[in-house]
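User: Is it possible to get a 3D structure for a protein together with its bound compound? The compound here is adenosine monophosphate. I've pasted both below.
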Amino acid sequence: MQIITEPREMQAISEKLRLNRQLIGVVMTMGALHEGHLSLVRLARETAGIVILTLFVNPRQFGANEDLHRYPRPFEQDIALAKAAGVDYLFAPEASGIYPETFQTSLVCGTLADKFEGALRQGHFNGVATVVAKLLNITKPHIAVFGEKDAQQLAIIRRLVADLNIDVTIVGAPIVREENGLAVSSRNIYLTSGERSNASILCQGLQHAGTCIALNRRDLSAIAAEVDAMVRSVQGFIPDYVSFVDEETFEPADNAEQGREYRMIMAVRAGSVRLLDNAKFLCR
Ligand code: AMP
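Assistant: Yes, that's possible. Here is the predicted structure of the complex:
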């Protein structure tokens, strides 16, 4: 595995790989690699002969009061994990390489980014979209794999690629969970052991939603309120939102139409950590 830090060098390597007719897959991460990230690498590997993993804690997607400075950065461990997973190139630029002093052009997302995570984290998705566009231009992949764990981000990236005619296939990867159902995340290390075991309530909430829908309930907002109450019943767990949404627009859905799919999304504050989870349901 080669470690590259300079955008120009990464771009030159990718250009050469493309000229040699290699299929390039990219997985974009902020590091502190875990089984969720590695599942994305494996999925990329199924299609791509060359896998590039980017590791960049993007300052532009953190708000002023967020955890940019305490975000975990176990670089040596990440190198070992990426190598073991069969990554070909680890692209780990400096912030000054991605945002030099001359930098001034950013992307502005549309209404998809105004809701839920976007409403609570001002400017977050503009920062994500800008860095994703830059990393796509630097790594020149044929496919890019993103986790469904960040479902709104995935929808925004699909929109970005369509709107800007970027020639890449976006692949969504299923959520990897711990044994108790908690979605794996780099920030889970900040949970106390009590919070960690209580965090199974999110997954139980999604399962409750699945059961309701299997029983042909159509009252999505009432089901979401039940899940909200389940989560709230755990001491110290405060939902920021629990809602069913349309998969593409992220417009809230109150009542289900037969034959349509909806995603239940939730964000929950648990102590000092925000937990995200979601699942897709088909209403038969
Ligand atoms: P992050 O490093 O948190 O920015 O995540 C990098 C990529 O990994 C994103 O596409 C995430 O959606 C994805 N990801 C993070 N956690 C998981 C998980 N538990 N299962 C699947 N994908 C994940």
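Residues 29-30, 36-37, 39-40, 146-147, 149-150, 173, 175-176, 183-186 surround adenosine monophosphate (CB under 6 Å). Strands lie at 2-4, 24-29, 50-55, 89-91, 143-147, 169-173, 237-246, 261-270, 273-282.
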